[in-house]
From TrEMBL:
<feature type="transmembrane region" description="Helical">
    <location>
        <begin position="37"/>
        <end position="57"/>
    </location>
</feature>
<feature type="domain" description="Major facilitator superfamily (MFS) profile">
    <location>
        <begin position="5"/>
        <end position="393"/>
    </location>
</feature>
<dbReference type="GO" id="GO:0022857">
    <property type="term" value="F:transmembrane transporter activity"/>
</dbReference>
<protein>
    <submittedName>
        <fullName>MFS transporter</fullName>
    </submittedName>
</protein>
<feature type="transmembrane region" description="Helical">
    <location>
        <begin position="69"/>
        <end position="91"/>
    </location>
</feature>
<feature type="transmembrane region" description="Helical">
    <location>
        <begin position="305"/>
        <end position="331"/>
    </location>
</feature>
<keyword id="KW-0472">Membrane</keyword>
<feature type="transmembrane region" description="Helical">
    <location>
        <begin position="278"/>
        <end position="299"/>
    </location>
</feature>
<feature type="transmembrane region" description="Helical">
    <location>
        <begin position="338"/>
        <end position="361"/>
    </location>
</feature>
<dbReference type="InterPro" id="IPR036259">
    <property type="entry name" value="MFS_trans_sf"/>
</dbReference>
<dbReference type="InterPro" id="IPR050327">
    <property type="entry name" value="Proton-linked_MCT"/>
</dbReference>
<dbReference type="Pfam" id="PF07690">
    <property type="entry name" value="MFS_1"/>
</dbReference>
<feature type="transmembrane region" description="Helical">
    <location>
        <begin position="97"/>
        <end position="122"/>
    </location>
</feature>
<feature type="transmembrane region" description="Helical">
    <location>
        <begin position="134"/>
        <end position="154"/>
    </location>
</feature>
<feature type="transmembrane region" description="Helical">
    <location>
        <begin position="367"/>
        <end position="388"/>
    </location>
</feature>
<feature type="transmembrane region" description="Helical">
    <location>
        <begin position="160"/>
        <end position="181"/>
    </location>
</feature>
<keyword id="KW-1133">Transmembrane helix</keyword>
Amino acid sequence: MGKKAWTVIICGALILALGMGMRQNHGLFIEPMRMDLGWQLGVFALALAIQNLMWGIAQPFAGALADKYGTMPVLMSGVFIYVLGLVGMAFPQGPLMFHMSAGVFIGLGVAAMGLPVVLGAVARMVSEEKRSTALGIASMGGSFGQFLFAPISQSLINQYGWSFALACLAAIAALGVFLALQVNAKPADGHIETHEPKQTLREALHEAFGTNSYILLNLGFFVCGFHIAFIVTHLPMFLSTCNISPDVGATALAVIGLSNMVGTYVSGVLGGKYSKKYLLSIIYFSRAVAILIYTLMPITVFSTMAFSVAMGALWLSTVPLTSGLVGVMFGTRYMSTLFAITLFSHQVGAFFGAWLGGYFFDLTGSFQGGWLASIALGLFAAVVHLPIKEMSVRDRRVTA
């Protein structure tokens, strides 16, 4: 990979660290904000659920704009909206405004700074042989951000309070403007395969939604979103209900991020050598087993750290494999858009993971319903990937 490709990969990964990685630690703010503001958990759960849903809804549009105009203007817009959302979250003026800032604004901002936009740029800068590894390296950015900002966020909350902590994170996120200037990959750049036919976006969408394997991939990614949103939103408070310090929740999220840096890279490398769909089935089955074992054991600091290591290795390791399958099936010309639609399914799952966790807790005083749903969905995702046909839809037609 050349110098320009490495610049796009590294700066793209850092943008994911600021966007995806930073917002994965918002669950740390729920308990101190709830105590200060006197709001029910459902208010915060709904805000983060809206955030995930808006992220998913806006993602295909952000991907389509990146496919048409290039990544840089989309990323710049995302940074601006994201910072506005963090500032509004730091100084909430009631639940409605909190839902607008923490939900709508941050969701839109993260969408424009998200995986489809960044990974679409990365995919166009490298050859097909190196693509899975490059996507894995770039995807590590989200995990690095989670690892980095979990202890920073908790330390700022402990020393200065949640409002000042969020204002500091907004200032840090603004640095994404300088990174966006370096990720200026345009649709005509790099390694768009010469065998890809000329298509309009409408034709590409028609082709994708007429492909059963693409539909199954979307169903599986729904489960990934549910798992991640439920855990990052509710794990810190779940530990509080078990009389474990909030600092352990921050450490657990950091450990998940650190472990997933390894897991995502290994997933990308393995995806270049072995069947991506079978690797995805193994990941989702392993998640279900890890959650089952954790919830059956006594909840201690040790069991939580062990769970964080295991879950972290499986966390965003789905991303290079899922995005890689989109590239295999449809090529890279409209990869940002098509993967963004897949990520919309992911974010619909995230909406339910964040919201139902809070709803069940307000209803029953327990997170048990969310854990059980996570186990069942993990088994479902393990099965649903098995029928996927791992080849180009055009090659499949020729073979047929």
